[in-house]
Predict the structure.
Amino acid sequence: MTTRTSDEARDDFVEKMGQPLGTQFAALWQEVVHLHFKWAEFVELFGSKPSRIDLLNQAAPAFFRIVQDTLWEGILLHLARLTDAAVSGGRQARTNLTVLNLPDLVHNLDTKARVQKLVDVFQRQNTILS
């Protein structure tokens, strides 16, 4: 397995996808990796072994409930940010770091259509879960 820094990965994405798609994709990739780390920690602590839950409840039930709730809320908010509208704000609109603006950054029409189709599927599934 090859290990790269985030800067090396970004540079590789930019080289292959061009600017600004490569930069946006690299930033989203880093966010998704961070989200996976959060989820792995949540599952390890609260979703893998009933004996671990018993131990946490014996040691400090209120503290670990706060940790569980905080991690869960953080994961949900992280997912929500990745699925936000492409632009937000009123008069001073700003572009969000979200998968929804990826299709607009793709220049190749065939690839753009495929990416848009995936984003559409994603949005439909996200709507079902909300």
About this structure: Residues 6-129 form one domain.
